[in-house]
Amino acid sequence: MEGEVWRLITPTFMHSGFSHMLFNSFSLILFGPALERMLGSGKFLFVYLFSGIIANLATLLLEPLTYTHVGSSGAIFGLFGYYIAIIIFRKKMMSQQNAQIILILSAVSIIMTFLQPNINIIAHLFGLLGGLLLGAIPYFTKKDLSDSIHTTASWASSQRKNISFQSPVKVLIWAMIIILAILGFWK
Predict the structure, then answer these.
(1) Which of 38, 78, 94, 127 meets the CB 3.0–4.6 Å disulfide criterion with 55?
(2) Exposed, middle or buried by CB within 10 Å (0-12, 13-18, 19+), for 177?
(3) Does 150 qualify as catalytic in the annotation?
(4) What Rg value do the Cα atoms of the chain yield, rounded?
């Protein structure tokens, strides 16, 4: 707020400890190379940095000025957001299995954002949103957007039909697993 604009960038390279660095490095190593091959090094770096800056800017504007944080996770979530944009707008670039893996890991990461203590929720959500918007911007023509919404709605409708035919025992078992996992995180 006092002209120290570099503070919007520097948190993107900081970690709160070894486990935080390990998790973010693992995510970057696991998801970064494929996205970098799709985008090229320059665009990949731009997506990473832009997502981190958006996450840090949102933190600055929405959290108290005394709020201290490290922002590398916001940039990682930006990569997830960009992948989600690929899944929505460029389905042919990624196999169905890889798309499902990305969606599941993104959902788990978002859920964990709310369950773990000392997480900058704002940075995670706005990093994800920044990456999603960067991936979606080239596809905001009326026809492409309409086609994408129609395809996504059709897919969601088919998934809803699949869910309605699930065995009640199977649903109950999954519900118990989720409840036990949530309780285990609150110990």
Answers:
(1) 127
(2) exposed
(3) no
(4) 18
